[in-house]
Amino acid sequence: MSLIPQNLQAITATIVAAAQEAGRPPQSVQLLAVSKTFGPEAVLEAVEAGQRAFGENYLQEGLDKIRSLQEAGAPALEWHFIGPIQSNKTRPIAEHFSWVHTVEREKIAQRLSEQRPAGMAPLQICLQVNISGEASKSGVAPEELAALAHKVAALPNLTLRGLMAIPEPAVEFEQQRAAFARLRSLYEQLRADGLALDTLSMGMSADLRAAVVEGATIVRVGSAIFGSRHYS
Ligand SMILES: *Cc1c(COP(=O)(O)O)cnc(C)c1O
pTM for the whole thing? Predict the structure, then answer.
């Protein structure tokens, strides 16, 4: 028997407990199920357990899964792109996803805005921030974040919702918290600066409690729901 429904229940319980610990309403944290490397049948099991938002890192794999789930007659799902973006791959992202968490350059944002089909809701955007310095190559540097955020917020077919980060792995709870606190502080500065942001995309299987305590509004959880990943 599949463990997906009970894993979803356990993660939800962890989120609720962490939110309560932080004095936050549990509904203020959305669970994004990261289904990369797992097939459409795994997604369907999560859908049957009530999950509606899914994250994908690899474009072709994500597009195939979106199509499979539609063909399987699944209810409307919300697909989030959470992987690195090459500039020649922006069009299918703009056409098939509701959210993108990994925007780190103005050029990518411009293309996503231009390529978002007329008649679709604006694409929901998080800027990925490099909060781990040298340890990470991904994400905009904190010093460059404000300029990028104001440019992206002005693009017509995007809605800038907030910030995302993948801190370098840390085992200690307090260390995990410190990284998330840096992202939250950048987010609060942008809000004080007049940007209407409402999303902090942070926390994965191993550090989701620290992320919720520090204000995460979307946690991106893969292996704790679907099991460990095998890359071919
Ligand atoms: C794979 C991935 C996740 C999920 O990671 P787990 O440790 O399996 O929960 C979350 N966010 C991003 C950007 C990922 O690539």
Answer: 0.97
